[in-house]
Amino acid sequence: MSQNADTRPARHADRHSRFPKSRVDALTDGVFAFAMTLLVLDIRLPEDLKIDDGAALTAHLMSLGHETVTYLISFLVLGAFWRGTIEARRSEEQVGHTVVGVSLWLLFLVTVVPFSSGLVSRYGQFTPAILVYAANMGALALLVVALRYLDVAPERRSLAAAFGQRLPLFLVSALLSAALGFVAPHAALYAYFLNILSRLPFWPSTPASAGRS
């Protein structure tokens, strides 16, 4: 009985343990930077490619258009998600274990982006590649929502504020891309360009979500 009494406070303390926010932020920045750098490695010409003249080189460079579009979309998406993780954060120096856990799952999905991006870059004409990429993007968006929700004071938590004005559109674009993957895989990736709408002046904003990505 005394042993249980001794370990109960320890377990209770662990549930309420706090972690240095600066270390979480440093890991987040590093993982995002690494993943964003890896994306560009998928844009490359074959090593055994034989080029006879400038016209041939131009033709091969033009053939990298799909890979370049995939890289651009993925880079901008990761940039937006990184921005979303640093906006509307608490000013406290420590965060709870739940926020750390969500952050780690978010970073795990960030490290998957180079894989899903490479997959859709090479095999974007096939439905499974489109679905893997859309699932990666959608899961990232939902975890950013969870992080925004948890990483504010409890009395200020709001799902509407956590979603903001732009993440719902991003989720719609991911779902639309997945749907297009069944009927027009070649065009599915372009659904993500819908997110440009949220950057235009006419897109609605509220004080609760102003400045969020």
UniProtKB/TrEMBL annotation:
Listed InterPro entries: TMEM175-like
Origin: domain of life: Bacteria
Membrane topology summary: Multi-pass membrane protein
Keywords associated with the record: Ion channel, Ion transport, Membrane, Potassium, Potassium channel, Potassium transport, Transmembrane, Transmembrane helix, Transport
Catalytic activity: K(+)(in) = K(+)(out)
An example Gene Ontology CC term for this record: membrane
Residues annotated as transmembrane: 68-86, 98-120, 126-147, 167-193
Subcellular compartments: Membrane
Record-level Gene Ontology MF annotations: potassium channel activity; proton channel activity
Family: Belongs to the TMEM175 family.
Official protein name in the record: DUF1211 domain-containing protein
